[in-house]
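Board work, copied verbatim: Probable butyrate:acetyl-CoA coenzyme A-transferase
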Amino acid sequence: MSQWTDMYKQKLMTPEEAVKVVKSGDWVDYGMGTTQPILLDQALAARRDELQDVKVRMCLSVAPRQIIEQDPERKAFTAMNWHMSGYDRKKCALGQMNFIPMCYRNKPSMYRDLLDVDVALITVGPMDKHGFFNFGLAVSATEAITKKAKKVIVEVNEAMPRVLGGRGECIHISDIDGIVEYGNHPLATIPFTTGDDIDAKIAKTIVQQIPDGATLQLGIGSLPNTIGALLAESDLKDLGVHTEMLVDAFYLMYQHGQLTNRRKAFCRDKVSWAFALGTQDLYDWMDDNPFLAAYPVDVINDPFVISQMDNFISINNCIDIDLFGQVSSESAGTHQISGSGGQLDFTDGAYRSRGGKSIIALRSTFHNKKTGRDESRIIPTLAAGTTVTDPRSQVNWVATEYGIVNLMGASTWERAERLISIAHPDFREDLIKEAEKMKIWRYSNKR
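↓ predict structure ↓
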């Protein structure tokens, strides 16, 4: 231990000293979610008057980024983001941040093969007796980022859970150029909240599609949380988890005894995951827990890996779906809301699984605050500029509070008919008229 302790002392520095490694024109990477730095971000922002053209990549910010707050006109720093949080969305709308499109499974390979990283500034857990620092809640592409970086500076937060692999969950002190200590500061959390009666109705429809021994992937939000809570109350047995995002719904299933991972073909007997965001209870469960195995996202989201697990059930929500079956889960027109994430990865992988199902779940309507009216989420065509997250050729099952339908293998008229059947009744006649105009409605269909 003394060897690594001596090295630690040699590399320990203040935030101000650490960020001196950043030069004008550099590509800097902040990592993802809870691995984004706090002190290093503040220190780098303080250099705004002496730097130019510093490009900073990040993902899913869980706190305000000072390089943006202190430089809103982007004179020194250009912020870019792989997946938008609420904060990121606002900054993107203001022109203070740019989005980076991706399929999430490709993120590590893009760093390995295509992208430059001059400096990585990453939050980690404390060093262990073997000289390793843990990436904690965001394994994801962090290993690929740090391996590509010319210089790696870590910000040590003692509150970061020590997660077990899998692989790719840690970095050795010999691969680090500087260490900054942040003390023991609580990590960002999000509450576990379930939805209303409409979400409960959708959840009930979906849970009926899940057999004993299924392996699950859930997205984020009140609807997936509602599904998880209903699963925890169900009689289903021996469920498994293989998910890009580890959320409290899985912890709830574990507490109720449904989660065993006994039937998984990949990483049997363990939950396999890439990053996590949730309550402190979730983080406490993850800490040093051999029941959980972290992997880089190019393993977790690989459709080939997903397809090896029988009865793989992928459940994600979306913003809109049109009558052709095109799904948007990330933008409204050109307004970026979140990101592609791994939805297409799991849509593809779950369909390939024997007995598997990819389910896109959505409420049939939303309340438009601008117009003051309820509007349909099932629409004739996506609005101009809207990003297609899942092409129509890859969409399998779609569920609303009015039922669940399969689109895979369906012609354009069948898709229109099935989607209209699960649209809100108030909008069905108008959708039929639009389908007729687009020549995707059979005149023999009942109205």
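Residues 20-183 form a domain with the Glutaconate Coenzyme A-transferase fold (CATH 3.40.1080.10).
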